[in-house]
Amino acid sequence: MHSPAPQRTAHTTRSLFEIHRWVFISLGLLAFALGAVGVFVPGMPTTVFLLIGSFFLARSCPGLRDKLLAKPMFKPYARFVVPGGQITRRDRITGLTGMWAAITLSTVVLAITVHPAWWVPSLMVMSGAVGSWFIVRVWGR
Q: In whole angstroms, what is the distance from residue 138 CA to residue 46 CA?
């Protein structure tokens, strides 16, 4: 004979929700902090970290997300993060050019120095193609 499964109480469910919420808030703040570093450090992404931080904060503390995006440091990036935000044509061209320059340089340096398996540069190029499609089709409206 086995004992019945323990019943979940409202208290257990509420405490799990609180833990989940605080983990999301922590991850969101960490991502925003990394985005802040990216504002000042060349080569470190900012928008990606703000997207990740916005994802976590929108599900745990939307008011905090809105307050952070209103800060002067993040305001230029807020249009990329908020739903329905648009990227200007100039920004799309700049982003695509920079992305493909980095992919090309990385692939060439990797091929010259490491001689990786054929699928490594292929994966880099395919990732760039997916990123390009996303920039052109999703943010290009």
A: 19
CB–CB of 11/35 below 8 Å? Answer: no
Residue indicated by tokens 């450090």? 41
Give the separation between CA 97 and CA 95, rounded to whole angstroms. 5
Distances (CA, A) of 38 to 7, 29, 31, 69, 138: 47, 14, 10, 15, 24
* Tokens at 76, concatenated: 């230029």
**Residue 74: Cβ-neighbour burial (10 angstroms; 0-12, 13-18, 19+):** buried
Residues 24, 27, 29, CA angle at the centre, nearest 5°? 105
Let me know: does 107 contact 125? Beta carbons within 8 Å.
yes
How does pLDDT run across 87-100, given as a tens digit for each residue? 778 888 888 898 89
* The overall pTM is greater than 0.85: no
The Cα–Cα gap between 30 and 49 comes to: 9
pLDDT band, residue 85 (cuts 50/70/90): low
Residue 50 tokens read as 């703000």
